[in-house]
Write a structure and sequence with these properties.
single chain; mainly alpha; 11 helices; 2 strands; 72% helix; globular
């Protein structure tokens, strides 16, 4: 039982990290209908900017992390303004190929600028623990878990209660009629790419702190995050979060009891079972056009 709880706690933390990227996937997909496979590369940008500011400029972690996340948000904005906006109306396969190309370009740029070697980004409180019922829990894990809850709640509240969020929801269902009522559709698209960059950057900072930092790090987590979004129902913020948790817990339990080789297999087994029972995912209804359904 002790091992089961240990594996579950570890899975919740990993799942929280998956959810950062999964929510970014969902947010952008519902506005643009594009599965963004450059989501991980946004995280690489944020992680390296954060690492560089801390190690070279001796910037406090919080300020460095904010700068890194803003840099990844800017990267998303520029991706839309310089390329995606010119490709509106292009076949979906062309847009998907573009996101793959963007991922490759950003990863290669990171390697040219900072090198291919492994670096380490130390998170605050990463060596400090507290004990609950005999279990040692890192303060960092608590921070990740809390932020993992706050991020999807904040995104949900933004879309539901703010004017820009409502405009984004409108753009998710149509490109034509929102412009007829004064909504700046290209501006909403740029915002969605920026938000996707911010969420990807947040994942990159914490993933590189929990594991390590190198240019292709986020490629390892891109597919699980995509799977988490599909598991929850592509288009549901809540589903992306819950899907991330389910996936993280399943992977850690499988790794702990069946061996490390089952970490990847378990993700697809869970996805297969869920989609066989509920093809639209856990949260998204088959007929819903609500980006937060």
């Amino acid at each position: 039982m002790h091992s089961f709880i240990d594996y579950t706690i570890a899975g919740v933390i990993v799942g929280s990290l998956y959810s950062f990227m999964a929510v970014g996937f969902v947010t952008l997909y519902k506005c643009t209908k594009v599965p963004n496979f450059a989501q991980g590369a946004f995280g690489v940008v944020a992680a390296y900017v954060t690492w560089w500011l801390i190690t070279r400029e001796h910037t406090p972690f919080v300020l460095a992390a904010v700068a890194g996340v803003l840099a990844s948000g800017l990267t998303g904005y520029l991706a839309d303004r310089t390329a995606m906006r010119r490709m509106l109306g292009a076949p979906i396969i062309s847009l998907i190929i573009f996101t793959y190309g963007l991922d490759t370009a950003l990863t290669s740029a990171a390697q040219e600028i900072w090198g291919p070697q492994i670096e380490f980004l130390k998170l605050p409180e990463s060596t400090n623990y507290f004990h609950v019922a005999g279990f040692a829990i890192q303060y960092t894990d608590v921070i990740i878990f809390v932020i993992g809850i706050l991020v999807p709640v904040a995104v949900w509240a933004f879309f539901k209660y703010t004017r820009l969020g409502m405009s984004t929801r409108a753009t998710a269902t149509s490109r034509t009629w929102p412009s007829l009522i004064g909504i700046d559709v290209p501006g909403v698209m740029s915002f969605s790419w920026t938000l996707a960059g911010v969420l990807g950057g947040l994942a990159g900072v914490f993933l590189s702190g929990v594991y390590y930092l190198e240019p292709s790090l986020m490629d390892t987590f891109l597919l699980p995050a995509f799977t988490a979004a599909a598991l929850g129902g592509f288009g549901s913020v809540a589903g992306a979060y819950v899907g991330g948790l389910i996936l993280g817990i399943a992977q850690d339990l499988a790794s702990g009891y069946l061996g490390a080789s089952w970490t990847t297999y378990s993700a697809y087994i869970v996805l297969f079972i869920v989609l066989m029972i509920r093809p639209q995912g856990l949260f998204k209804t088959a007929v819903s056009h609500n980006p937060l359904a």
